[in-house]
What we know:
CATH superfamily of the largest domain: Response regulator
Number of domains: 3
CATH class of the largest domain: Alpha Beta
Amino acid sequence: MKLFANLHASNPSDCIISLSRPVREELPPRPSVPAAGRIELYLENRILSSAWLPETTVPSMKELSSRLATSYPTLRAALESLVRRGLLEPRGRGYRVPPVSTRRSHARIVLFEPGYQMGKMTITPGLSQEFLHLLEQECSRSSIGLDIVGISEREGRMHYIDIAGGNIIEPRSLDYAAGYLYAATMSRSDIAATLSELYVHNKPVAILDMLGDLAISPAIQNSPRFCRFAVSTSAACARQIGRYLLAQGHRRLAFISPFHAWDWSRKRVEGLQQVCAAGGNIASVKPFALDTFIRRLQFSEQARKRNDIAMLSMPREAIDAMPFPYRRVLDLRMEIELQNCYIDAEIYAQCIPLFEQALADKDISAWVPVNDQIAAFALDFLRSRGVKVPDDISLIAFDDSPVALKERITSYNFNMRALVPAMLEFVLRPSASPTASRRTVEGYIVERQTTRGKVQ
């Protein structure tokens, strides 16, 4: 299978990899719709799924005509219809996707962010942090007002806090917003109650789903005002990695995860298995997984059983003797940072038996850890055992986080830069968006130094 590389990577040594598309693309199978209408629907889906980002020029008439096997007059009729609807605008001799701001500027939207604790949002590094950063940038650039509401669960009841003022509010008071975003990144427990509160406003709701298995009522899930954007909970990302590894000649893969109690982990091994089966079972994937840990804090609890945590902390008298800025920063950060260190160390400890089992299978030539953190631990483990990466074993993971960049790990990027405009488009123009209640934005593989084709 042919691969192509996009050389506009953020790092000169990185290479963006995607499986090449066929020369001819299939239009939506709707025989009752005229050709121009089916072409318009195809182009509309490319725009609204952010396959073509705002302010980018769409492919030329010649390229689209060849790709869609259609005539210039039919193609132009579809493009001009999209111009009249505001989804495209003329640009020189071609067309471009207009910026979000020209479609609905000066509107206000509300983001619900779970995990509000002690007056601060708990934003985990990685995809959720990247999402919030890109969302704030896009809203600022497009003159869209963004209000953030933190969600905190206390004594079995949900509390909603206006981040700007720190005041407790009721979701029903937010009817001024054009629509709502919900970041399902940490907990599923509050989503049903929050969506029920918002449903009465009859406004669009877009959910960033990074957990899977969300408890959403059928009435809300089937509503045209609701859409769930699956980021890391789809099997599509793993299928892309599976095709990539098979194209490199790998025939036996190891999937490694200490987080297999979560739906997103199970979806990833499912995607790898689908690719192996579609290839006529010439390849196989063997899971090495734990399904006992549901919450991140469970790793901390396990670490406390292994160690006397108090013995590992800096003595109080040593901190008190420091100048005020040092004392203040250490007080603010030490407890959180130490807990994160214990959690990461325990995760590594839980992965060691999985790594040893995978290494014992001599037919396995590629490891697919469930995310970049586990890949970094795997890389350290393999080096400690004298295994050369990628000469002996290739390594590829998910998230394309700063960890992957630092450790030079080949990783799947979930394309948050395309997902944020797609979510905003749904919230600000729900009538123009596709009717599917669940969407996945296509990502891509960033190739670094931990993968290479297997020598036959």
